[in-house]
Design a protein that fits this description.
Rossmann fold, 4-stranded parallel beta sheet, 4 strands
Length: about 210
């Protein structure tokens, strides 16, 4: 591949993912990678078609980018009952047969992107507008049946985020995901899909 080829193309299921990814990529050192020359495309028909059309969509980019990542939610993908690892492997095999060889990865978030929000950083509370509340956010979540005792994150992370914002009358915005990605320690997120994404990027673009 020549020097005009970009490092990586991302295909994501919605604007929330685009914002989260953009925020993270502004902090390459925190991810343990070098700065990237990349493009992000948002699929207009969200998770299910991001899953079914990613191979066709990315086929024409195989010579324009060194690597590719597809990112979508398991919840709403139309394959919620499928084993997540098996689904990722099947789609990666399809990409490999369509010009990407071993240069593409599928990252499926279980159950959905909001799982990345709930790290234990106090910055999360602040970004969600809870900083000046007299009640600790985690306590409030438990009192309202949104977080089990001793759990790291809510079982239904999207519901917890929406009800948190509704409680303080803060509008939901894709920019919240970007703010969290830009400000919260990336080492605090222990979500399996996030770790898979981070380790994939490190394998391809490590500063070492």
């Amino acid at each position: 591949m020549n020097e005009s080829v970009k490092d990586i193309v991302f295909l994501v299921a919605d604007k929330d993912m685009e914002n989260a990814l953009s925020g993270m990529l502004l902090r390459p050192k925190r991810l343990g990678i070098r700065s990237l020359n990349y493009s992000i495309f948002v699929h207009p028909r969200r998770d299910p078609d991001c899953r079914t059309e990613c191979v066709r969509f990315l086929r024409s980019f195989a010579r324009q980018f060194r690597h590719a990542v597809v990112l979508f939610d398991h919840q709403g993908s139309g394959r919620e009952t499928y084993n997540l690892e098996t689904l990722q492997a099947e789609l990666e095999a399809d990409l490999a047969r369509n010009g990407w060889e071993d240069r593409a990865r599928i990252i499926i978030i279980q159950p959905e992107l909001e799982a990345w929000v709930w790290s234990d950083s106090p910055q999360v509370d602040s970004i969600l507008g809870w900083k000046d509340s007299p009640t600790n956010l985690r306590v409030w979540l438990r009192e309202n049946g949104l977080l089990e005792q001793n759990a790291v994150k809510p079982q239904d992370p999207k519901k917890a985020m929406l009800q948190t914002l509704r409680e303080i009358r803060k509008p939901l915005s894709s920019s919240l995901f970007r703010q969290i990605a830009e400000q919260v320690s990336l080492n605090r997120c222990q979500d399996a899909a996030f770790i898979r994404l981070r380790e994939t990027l490190r394998a391809w673009f490590s500063v070492g």
